[in-house]
Amino acid sequence: MKPSRSERVRATPPKLFTYVLVGFIALLGLTCLYYGSSFAPGSRKSDEFDGSSPARAGFASNRDGESRVEVPRSIPICDSKHSDLIPCLDRDLHHQLKLRLNLTLMEHYEHHCPPPERRFNCLVPPPAGYMVGLIPIKWPVSRDEVWKANIPHTHLAQEKSDQNWMVVNGDKINFPGGGTHFHYGADKYIVSLAQMLKFPGDKLNNGGSIRNVLDVGCGVASFGAYLLSHDIIAMSLAPNDVHQNQIQFALERGIPSTLGVLGTKRLPYPSRSFELAHCSRCRIDWLQRDGILLLELDRLLRPGGYFVYSSPEAYAHDPENRKIGTAMHDLFRRMCWRVVAKRDQSVIWGKPISNSCYLKRGPGVQPPLCPSGDDPDATWNVSMKACITPYSVRMHKERWSGLVPWPRRLTAPPPRLEEIGVTPEQFREDTETWRHRVMEYWKLLKPMVQKNSIRNVMDMSSNLGGFAAALNDKDVWVMNVIPVQSQPRMKIIYDRGLIGATHDWCEAFDTYPRTFDLIHAWNTFTETQARGCSIEDLLIEMDRILRPEGFVIIRDTSENISYIKKYLTLLKWDKWMTETTPNGDSLSAAKDERVLIARKKLWSVAAISEL
């Protein structure tokens, strides 16, 4: 006979206490395990982890702003098959996660980061035979040749052999300067464009009024490479598509370029950033979705900006392509663009200089004007919009961007400063402060830096672009990154005649490993920590995009600098290091600011395995 309910209750206190105690201990253990893995820069469960599968990693939240992660004994090395890892453009991961991406809209080439449990948390190794530390090919020679061992992918040479993109020549890869539409050289093509536009002296920069160019579907970026001698800087853009390593070749050559695609999201550049956009047989369906891709170019072009569209000669007699050309012409007409010049299969359209044409369009004409509440400078994870971005009242009235010609543009306060609440005096002070800061940096670097050994530079928190402006007398280019929380300031970068992109440093940057010779981080760790993201994971991401023999300059609080120093040996950034207390200036937010400069070693999986 079963005991009554009251008898059972009276009989079980010892058992009940035991069950509660065991449950509490189990809960405490799970809590410790959870927080332990969250604080750690990935789950380094074993120092023997070989990186052959994803480790729990990447930019995990730091739930206790004051606590520090215990520094591990080592950081694992990724498997060699991941030597070209781009975490947020990893199509194998897309497949594994079963992401439903629209291939027609190019979503599979857009930025999709792995969840924390699928992020790699290891050091990306260079390919076998990597040559940069032994016999580096320096700029400007690197424009025309690179070591094959550094990018051991030669399929493009065979695929584009008839177009002079690149030629394998023994242990090097040569770049004759050809392209899909300019087989005989980008230099001659650039002159022909200047002639079409009737610019003085056949100079495409037109006296400094054309400075920033967007090259869409750029291949190995030879167009951008040859624009540099014209004092024009191009953001050469291409996806990580079937021509998988085209941007990697461009970056290895030392040419400003980045991974990106005209898909569903706005490009990470503010409105009115470029004087000229270029598409040479870029195989983009400009008419899709009510012309939304052309409208994205419209957002990015300045008043009176140009769009150069070059298609193969064979298209001239193809009925289908002639039909597409007619439809594009009709769309441009409704967008108030006009044909400025045409020669053979190259057409140059011009954008209007004011809102006057828009206001004269009949009711219901498509595409519509964007609503007044739309922010054309909001770009991070913002969908493209099938509408025309009208000019501000000021631009409409003045009928131009208000920017002075290059190179005066670099230091002249741009009109859009007032949109971010910065006065011309503050802008000038910022410029002068960074000039002094960079002079001090170079004094510290001088014993270690050989001539032309630094070419590709990243500034992780660019503010107003003062760091890049101070480097203008060096033969370098700077990828100016504006953290997402400060994205309105990106327009000032472009108004100075510089280039860059908005980014969230809680995620990986969309570029290849071994991209930059020098990375500058001013308060980046403090800002990243304040957003609840991991210092450790940011260090590992910086290592991924830093070239062997490259330098980091980290300017931050003394607390953060002391902590980062504990990772230098683990990251193999201990070839050379110096630390100093900088002089205080108008930008020094912290009284205990420190500057750390470190140099990354050239290492290989084989050499480490022998230790």
Share in β-strands: 15-25%
Please mark out the parts with pLDDT under 50 across 5 or more consecutive residues, or reply none: 1-17, 30-66
Radius of gyration, in Å, reads: 27 Å
Number of strands: 17
Class from secondary-structure proportions: alpha/beta
DSSP helix count? 19
Mean pLDDT: 87
Main β-sheet description: 7 strands, mixed
Rough outline: globular
Helix content: 25-40%
Strand order, main sheet: write it out.
6-5-4-7-8-10-9
* Spatial separation of the terminal alpha carbons: 72 Å
Region (Disordered): 43-67
InterPro entries: Put_SAM_MeTrfase, SAM-dependent_MTases_sf
Keywords: Glycoprotein, Membrane, Methyltransferase, Signal-anchor, Transferase, Transmembrane, Transmembrane helix
Transmembrane segments: 16-36
How would you portray this structure in words?
With 611 residues, this protein is α/β, with parallel strands linked by helices. Helices cover 29% and strands 16% of the residues. It has 19 helices and 17 strands. It has a seven-stranded mixed sheet. The protein starts with a helix and ends with a helix. Belongs to the methyltransferase superfamily.
Please name the defining characteristics of this protein:
alpha/beta; globular; 19 helices; seven-stranded mixed β-sheet; 16% strand; 611 residues; single chain
